[in-house]
Design a protein that fits this description.
4 helices; Arc Repressor Mutant, subunit A; Transcriptional regulator; WH-like_DNA-bd_sf
Length: 83
Amino acid sequence: MACLNPDGTLTRIARAVLTAVEAGAEDEATLAQTASLPLWRLRASLREIGAAGLIRAEGKGHILTAKGREVLELSRELDGDPS
């Protein structure tokens, strides 16, 4: 799956999108801006990340699933990122 690296860690783009979702960005335009991605790339990433079960649509936005939080936290720990 394109949102995960071969070693099972998040790609840079997937991590940026999950971080933007976690920060509470709701609509796609805000998510794209927060993640510093073009809208077309954000939409493709949302489909991939959703198919992986890391986010789910809610209302007009997206929220992290428990699996999404776990994968994002693990990614941060592996990168030594305290945020």
